[in-house]
Amino acid sequence: MSLGFRTRDLPPLTAEEAGRVCAMIERLGLLRETEGPLYFDRYMECVLYDPSLGYYRQGQSPIGTAGDFVTLPETTPLFGETLSRMFAPLYEAGLERTLVEIGPGTGRLAGQIAGALARAGTPLDHCILVEPDRGLWPRQQAFLSTLRGTEGTPFEWCTNPPPEWSGLLVMNEIVDAFPVALVEKGGSGWFEWGVRV
């Protein structure tokens, strides 16, 4: 029985991309020399979030049809509208009308939720987008400024979650980008996987 997997050849790296790959390999080698074993969580943190070389630190969103992957809010507003229908009764019952989105990508999900809540008569008092890559803030701001129904929503950007707030938290397609330890239980107990560079 065939599962029908298809393969796709990736385009060759540009000179700039190849240079970044080489620089990242050097960075990982230096980490191994200075910190000892390069465990998977540290490797993942570096390749995704290194300030100058990390995948999510390039100042452009990899999300969307022109990017590396597409998330549901990029294809339809129904996800944001569905969440807003779940959130509205909570806000109407007295929960502070604050929404915090961690890893907002293009800002589309927060905008869809804010717009749908406003149209339903339950506008947000505050929407906080937690985006560690400040290079994405202008793109998110530009997108949200064009989205119908969000005109009265006060949006705020920060690199880390606020220490104190009350309201609702949303994260979409973000948990898979957390640097996590990779562990396995073997015959002699638990061990943590590392990466060889």
Automatic annotation (TrEMBL):
<dbReference type="Pfam" id="PF02636">
    <property type="entry name" value="Methyltransf_28"/>
</dbReference>
<keyword id="KW-0489">Methyltransferase</keyword>
<keyword id="KW-0496">Mitochondrion</keyword>
<dbReference type="GO" id="GO:0032259">
    <property type="term" value="P:methylation"/>
</dbReference>
<dbReference type="GO" id="GO:0005739">
    <property type="term" value="C:mitochondrion"/>
</dbReference>
<dbReference type="InterPro" id="IPR003788">
    <property type="entry name" value="NDUFAF7"/>
</dbReference>
<keyword id="KW-0808">Transferase</keyword>
<dbReference type="InterPro" id="IPR038375">
    <property type="entry name" value="NDUFAF7_sf"/>
</dbReference>
<dbReference type="GO" id="GO:0035243">
    <property type="term" value="F:protein-arginine omega-N symmetric methyltransferase activity"/>
</dbReference>
<dbReference type="InterPro" id="IPR029063">
    <property type="entry name" value="SAM-dependent_MTases_sf"/>
</dbReference>
<protein>
    <submittedName>
        <fullName>Protein containing DUF185</fullName>
    </submittedName>
</protein>
